[in-house]
Amino acid sequence: MIQSGNLTSKAHYEILYVEEDSSFEEIHTCYRSSILSFHPDKMLTASETSNPEQESGNIRLEDLSIEDAGDVFELSYDCRCGDYFVINSSELADIGYPLLKNGSKIYLQTPRSLPASVVLPCGSCSLKALLLINADSKLQTELSN
């Protein structure tokens, strides 16, 4: 049994659902299966599998949260591991989609811009998301002060 302070938890065998007298091969197989079942890159919740766009890793510009980081705006999207996919306004401007600030509102300037996509890596895990941007993308939001 694993003991932590006053709490008693399951034994390693119970966690893997194997008997204590199991062979090395049985334990190894159950261990590998558990790793793959509980790895954040492999886990999908019911809500993620019901949305095909999410399942494919595609996100739209409208799905991103915006934060003023001084010289640039940071746009982020939650990863299922708890960290974020991030792109900033200077990176968007480099691919032809500059952000403009008018008072407390932010606009995406898209005159004559071609559709674009950018692969955004998560800051912690190995997941990547494809950010889809086109001239129809509506990014008009108010910054909270």
TrEMBL record:
**Gene3D superfamilies per record:** DnaJ domain (1.10.287.110), DPH Zinc finger (3.10.660.10)
Keyword Iron belongs to the record:
yes
Q: Which PROSITE patterns match?
A: DPH_MB (PS51074)
Keywords (alphabetical) are:
Iron, Metal-binding, Nucleus, Stress response
Location (main, coarse): cytoplasm
* Location(s), subcellular: Cytoplasm; Nucleus
* A GO MF label: metal ion binding
Start and end residues of each DPH-type MB domain: 55-134
- Please provide one cellular component term from the Gene Ontology annotations of this protein: cytoplasm
Instruction: Identify its protein family.
Output: Belongs to the DPH4 family.
For this entry, the protein name equals: DNAJ heat shock N-terminal domain-containing protein
Its source organism is Forsythia ovata
